[in-house]
Amino acid sequence: MMVPLDPMGPPVVNGGGGATRPNGGGDTAGAPTNFGIATISTNASIRRRDDEYRSKIMGTTVRNYAEDDTNGEASTCGRILIFLSWVLVVLTMPFSLLVCFKVVQEYERAVIFRLGRLMQGGAKGPGIFFILPCIDAYARVDLRTRTYDVPPQEVLTKDSVTVSVDAVVYYRVSNATVSIANVENAHHSTRLLAQTTLRNTMGTRHLHEILSERMTISGSMQLSLDEATEAWGIKVERVEIKDVRLPVQLQRAMAAEAEAAREARAKVIAAEGEQKASRALREASEVIGDSPAALQLRYLQTLNTISAEKNSTIVFPLPIDILTYFMKSKEAFQANQ
Length: 337
Known about the structure:
Helices cover about 55% and strands about 20% of the residues. The chain is of the alpha+beta class and about 325 residues long. The chain has a three-stranded antiparallel beta sheet. A hairpin with a 5-residue loop joins strand 1 and strand 2 (about 20).
């Protein structure tokens, strides 16, 4: 009969002489040895993970206690300094008001730091705001749109052509607090990023795409810059590609290619015109051949056209039929003689 065991207990021999293990399966004595080793190793790994988890919890708790102690000491010291600053303001009235009250313009915001920490409520302004002397510091942030003229960048296109590209980037500060707290110099960082983005974007395009798809490239650059500078509190409003300068030799080669293409098209057009004109002349000759009077009317029309140009010399076309008549008369006269 099987005896129920504790899951963590040792193996027990049943009435039949077989060893049983705490898995509830009633295995015989032939295979329990390996199972016992696996169970012991599994239990050891579980205990090891538990110990590591406890150590992490204890370390986090100790660290939190240390941070709480540090924050408590800093808050106590900060309260003392704030109280002393207020005492100084009161003692130096009304001269202290000249230092405590500040004004920012409509297009500006003020980010205030008190004892090195950002004050709650975000940026101040526009208008008047109050700071405490000696413990408060503030930074003015201009929210107006700025223009950055990206210097010409030498770029190797996807089809291995070296071009010089310059652009204009329009951006502004969308979050004054983030632009001061998250990056050292948001404007300089944005300008450097604009240069690298211009090079990277142009390097993935062919030359004909750069020359013909400027709006598409500008839009992709604007999205890329706006996504990258969002963490800096910068909003990229617009990107425009100003000029794409090609090497002189490449310009000459492209001009020769365009000229040859135009000449080829002109020759094709001239050949098509001659073909159509020959067909028209053939149809006209068929009409004139059917009606001899039409030829005389054509002669008269030609004379009218020549006389309208006020020329002193008029070339009168002689009908071939008249010459044929005289030739036949001459032949008949010679035959009679």
